[in-house]
Specification:
Blueprint: E1 6-25, E2 31-51, E3 55-59, H1 71-83, E4 88-94, H2 105-120, H3 127-137, H4 141-146, E5 149-153, E6 158-161, E7 169-175, H5 181-187, H6 199-207, H7 211-216, E8 219-220, H8 223-229, H9 231-243, E9 247-250, E10 257-261, H10 264-273, E11 280-286, H11 290-294, E12 298-301
Parallel strand pairs: 1-8, 3-4
Antiparallel strand pairs: 1-2, 1-12, 2-4, 2-5, 5-6, 7-10, 7-11, 9-10
Helix pairs in contact: 1-2, 8-9
Length: 302
Amino acid sequence: MAEIEWQWEQKAYAKINLALDVIGKRPDGFHEVSMIMQAISLHDTVGLSLRNSGISLACDKDDLPSDDSNLAYRAADLLRRECGATQGVHIQLTKRIPMAAGLAGGSSDAAAVLRGLNELWRLALTPVELEALAARLGSDVPFCLWGGTVQATGRGEQLEPLPDFAGFGVVLAHPAIAVSTAWVYGRFQLGQASGSRDRGFIRRAVEQNQFQSVAANLYNALETVTMPAHPQIGEIKTALVQAGACGVLMSGSGPTVFGLTPDLNSARQLAGRLSLGPDVSIFVAETVAREEQINGPSIITG
């Protein structure tokens, strides 16, 4: 009888930042942040297949590395080393989230690998233990484990779940610009961003599901660095507003800009009105609930 090979597949959702404030520099060299992070339906697909030994990775995008510089590969290697797993795994990535876009595509892939291998390798790690490992891979990876709507503090790894802010439309515009997160944070100056913002206001609006208040108060302190260096980002924001977005913002360190709409259908209509040129990719999505992220895996025997 042939040996049973377990398969695991799950969506790895992108994220946007409804709010991103930088509080100051930490002793460890990172920046102290206060963010409201939101999962959206734009996603990669991560598939895992058990192997007798070793880690291998394949991707449908030729420009994505498949060695230990890939965050998904590093997630598997970290679990193997820390938990003493003796089995191997093949990782298959189907990429839809643009890379280096401020949407946490690599972090979400890594988080999916952690979730999947925790099941396939029967490691029985608790959510707290998984989050601790995720934080070693990157500041966005702990959020990407669970998704939904979250208040993130520290360097982004301290998470407080908020009520789901789900079902609202998102139009994303990704220009063909390379933006380094380290470069942006390295040039951020506290004096350039507003220091008097009520950081609790947008959180309260999210908690009360007040879409218009959230859309009107989107905030990203990192725009003060990325937008002057790349004026096209400001032009895209203006175009989204003119097309009817209720609120627009750059996500993360950029360069992707998103616009919020009341629902998915209005997001599709807005995207149809945009004309941003061939070097800007447009994606239509919606905000998703935490439950969709944590209850989505399918495990198949065959």
